[in-house]
Amino acid sequence: MASLTFSLHRQQWRAMWQLTKPRVVLLIVFCAVIGMLLAVPGRPDLPRMLAATVGIALVAGAAAMINCLVERTIDARMRRTAWRATARGDVSPAATLLVALTALGLGMALLIGLVNALTAWLTLATFAGYAIVYTLLLKPNTPQNIVIGGASGAMPPLLGWVAMTGEVSAMAMLLFLIIYTWTPPHFWALALYRRDDYQRAGLPMLPVTHGARFTTLSIVLYTVLLLAVTLLPVALRASGAVYLLAAVLLGGRFLWLAACLHRNYADELARRCFRWSIHYLSWLFAALLLDHYLFIALRF
Ligand code: HEM
Ligand SMILES: CC(C)=CCC/C(C)=C/CC/C(C)=C/COP(=O)(O)OP(=O)(O)O
Predict the structure, then answer these.
(1) pLDDT tens digit string along 65-119?
(2) Which atom of ligand 1 is nearest to the CA of 154?
(3) Best residue for ligand 2 mutational test, from 72, 86, 146, 152 (most atoms within 8 Å of Cβ)
(4) Cα(66) to centroid(ligand 2), Å
(5) What is the Cα–Cα distance from 141 to 149, expressed in whole angstroms?
(6) Which residue ranges traverse the bilayer (predicted)?
(7) Atom of ligand 2 nearest to the CA of 187
(8) Atom 31 (ligand 1) nearest CA
(9) How confident is the model over 4-40, as pLDDT tens digits?
């Protein structure tokens, strides 16, 4: 097995890297790091933070690789994913499994050895939630797949928080709740303009099972819920005016796009909505952090 890994060509390593879904993992890690920084009032413990960041990134990348491995036949049937090395057969399942398990092992070792046990076990549960529960059980069987499975995608800021404090707090759960309610509009916007892919692959995504009209309405409702949830940190006095302004402006644009999509569906608009979901989450978390540091600076 070991010689298998080392005999991979440079091109195959590049393909393996793509299987980790690097851009998704980047945003996951960004949210985890913000969870870490929000958890501590002053200067964070940098070595612990670095170990937690690399550990979470390795486990998240491993989860994405297992997802690509399990879904290689389905991926081959979809235009969006047919290029993946697992779907094309450019890397063998055994090599993919070995690299993923190595990343998982390294990530867990870092979390257990240099962070804390609670973070390590919660990260492992998140791995299992995505790579096994979502990928194997939920995704092929129910249109609520991402509503339930979204729980694993929502874990990163909570993991970051626990990495720095060793415990789960109300604010950590609130950060989880923000990503949890963000996930359905994020994914359904993409599933709408990719519905032919999902139909061909035989996956019961909401636009395939319930049609575009029901899906756009669901996006609007979840976006309203998201806007409400993002106001909770202010209601609980954990965040201030800068964050409030960002949450209202960013959420307002998300809701406006969702409403336009529901009123007048077009694939291009769904694509814009999906792209905005990513910018939205990035800016919202950046605003949480800015607000946190402004609060500290003004207090002293
Ligand atoms: C179960 C929950 C989720 C589902 C089902 C989902 C689904 C998807 C899908 C299908 C794509 C397209 C990927 C591609 O074309 O390669 C995507 C892209 C993306 N997702 Fe998600 N996602 C989820 C959670 C998350 C989370 C938690 C984050 C980050 C915090 C995230 C960030 C992104 C980013 C940044 C992209 C763009 C990737 C690129 O441009 O290559 N997603 N998502
Ligand atoms: C911290 C940690 C261990 C996190 C693991 C959780 C994780 C990687 C969540 C990402 C969610 C994601 C990439 C969904 C893609 O949906 P999909 O798999 O349906 O998309 P696809 O059709 O592109 O494969």
Answers:
(1) 999 999 999 999 999 999 999 999 999 999 999 999 999 999 999 999 999 999 9
(2) 27
(3) 152
(4) 10
(5) 12
(6) 49-70, 91-112, 118-138, 145-164, 170-193, 214-235, 241-259, 280-298
(7) 16
(8) 24
(9) 555 778 888 999 999 999 999 999 999 999 999 999 9
Q: What are phi and psi of 80, to 5 degrees?
A: -65, -30
Q: Tell me what ipTM this predicted complex has.
A: 0.95
Report whether residue 156 contacts ligand 2, using a CB cutoff of 6 Å. yes
| H helix or E strand, kind and range, residue 100 | helix 93-110
Q: Is residue 24 within 6 Å of ligand 1 at its C-beta?
A: yes
Distance from C-alpha of 132 to C-alpha of 70, rounded to nearest angstrom:
9
Q: Which ligand is closest in space to the CA of residue 150?
A: 1
> Which DSSP category does 194 fall into?
T
pTM: 0.95
Cα–Cα dist 291/215, whole Å? 34
- pLDDT digits 0-9 by tens, 188-227: 999 999 999 999 999 999 999 999 999 999 999 999 999 9
Q: 64 alpha carbon to ligand 2 midpoint, in Å?
A: 6
Q: What is the CA radius of gyration of the chain?
A: 20
The closest of 230, 232, 276 to 254, measured between CA atoms, is 276
For residue 202, the tally of other CB atoms under 10 A from its CB is 10
Q: Kindly state the average pLDDT of the residues 283-289.
A: 98
- At 29 the three-state DSSP class reads helix
Indicate if ligand 2 lies below 6 Å from the C-beta of 39.
no
